[in-house]
Design a protein that fits this description.
Elements lengths: L16 H20 L10 E6 L5 H12 L3 E6 L11 H9 L4 E5 L3 H10 L4 E3 L7 H15 L6 E5 L4 H12 L3 E5 L8 H14 L3 E4 L2 H5 L4 E4 L11 H8 L6 H5 L6 E4 L11 H4 L6 H20 L4
Parallel strand pairs: 1-2, 1-3, 3-4, 5-6, 5-8, 6-7, 8-9
Helix pairs in contact: 1-5, 1-12, 2-12, 3-4, 5-6, 5-12, 6-7
Bound molecules: phosphoric acid mono(formamide)ester and norvaline.
Norvaline binds next to helix 6.
């Protein structure tokens, strides 16, 4: 059995480096089994409920397919079609769904809603993205970096653009696993100070570094990985035009890639807006691993589901 059984997955900060490593190890194993066509029905008879308050391609499909490959079942629950959308308290939704399903994945706006769900649910809650964090994405990203570069600790990841949910989870995940991380963003879009403080605490224990700067060239210096995300996240559509002007100097293009380590990985959680945060040339270029990241959502989350839902291997 494993130590993660019954735990919630709300933030990478709640997990030790050893626990994250065990998630990555099982993910790699499950990936191999799937590639070989070897069945691995570790969650046979189990059901995952998936509540979505925001759109999704990767998260929805990877969780749904993942549960199916593990011999279980996933239920897509659009929050607008749930009584939750008409004002049923999260507390009641959590208690009721816990009587039907074995775990709940939720994608929503306020991070506090996920915390509330976790407080009142008797089954594991998985954060499938909030305005604050996107831990499932970063689990898949760590798997991708480890596959491509053979290690995590000792590398440097540079993120340029908006200090958003993805940047926050990268700060927590990289600092936990001993990667140096540099974030370049306009000052008014820097990541939240409490997240940066947590990342710095982790980094101090791991002998790694956390840098927040306004200068993208400074950030990508000596970076083994360059990462970006959309300039306007879901829910920020009204600010799109203004943000587009602010973030222009933070675009990942050939010049910025050229300032990093030769052959550095280019990453993006997708969906991407070509010509805004990343040029089409770089997104589709030979250093880009964006499709591996997307694929690894499947393998990383299967590992997470198996470990949280507690089936012995
Ligand atoms: N990267 C990611 O979470 O994609 P979706 O919004 O398509 O789920
Ligand atoms: N920061 C983006 C990530 C999408 C996967 C958003 O929240 O919309």
């Amino acid at each position: 059995m494993n130590s993660l059984q019954g735990r919630h997955f709300l933030s990478l900060h709640d997990f030790t480096a050893i626990e994250i490593e065990s998630l990555l190890n099982l993910a790699a194993e499950l990936k191999q089994q799937q590639k070989k066509g070897k069945p691995h029905p570790l969650l046979s008879g189990k059901t995952l409920g998936m509540i979505f308050q925001k759109p999704s391609t990767r998260t929805r499909v990877s969780f749904e397919v993942g549960m199916w490959q593990l011999g279980g079942h996933a239920l897509f629950l659009n929050s607008q079609d749930l009584q939750m959308g008409r004002g049923e308290p999260i507390k009641d939704t959590a208690a009721v769904l816990s009587r039907y399903v074995d775990a709940i994945m939720i994608r929503t706006f306020e991070h506090s809603e996920v915390v509330e769900l976790a407080t009142h649910a008797s089954v594991p809650i998985i954060n499938g993205l909030t305005d604050l964090l996107h831990p499932c994405q970063i689990l898949a990203d760590l798997l991708t970096i480890r596959e491509k570069l053979g290690k995590l600790a000792g590398l440097k990841l540079a993120y340029t653009g908006d200090g958003n949910n993805v940047a926050h989870s990268l700060l927590l995940g990289c600092s936990k696993m001993g990667l140096d991380i540099a974030i370049a963003a306009p000052r008014q879009h820097w990541p939240f100070p409490d997240i940066v403080a947590k990342a710095r605490e982790n980094a101090a224990k791991n002998n790694s570094a956390v840098q927040i700067t306004v200068d993208p060239l400074e950030a990508v210096k000596k970076a083994n990985v360059i990462y970006t995300d959309v300039w306007a996240s879901m829910g920020q559509e009204a600010e799109k035009k203004e943000r587009k002007n602010t973030f222009v100097p933070y675009q990942i293009n050939n010049d910025l890639v050229g300032a990093a380590v030769t052959g550095a990985l280019v990453m993006h959680c997708l969906p991407a807006y070509r010509g805004d945060e990343i040029t089409a040339e770089v997104l589709e270029g030979k250093q880009s691993v964006v499709l591996d990241q997307a694929e690894n959502r499947l393998h990383a989350q299967k590992s997470l589901l198996v470990q949280l839902m507690g089936q012995a291997k």
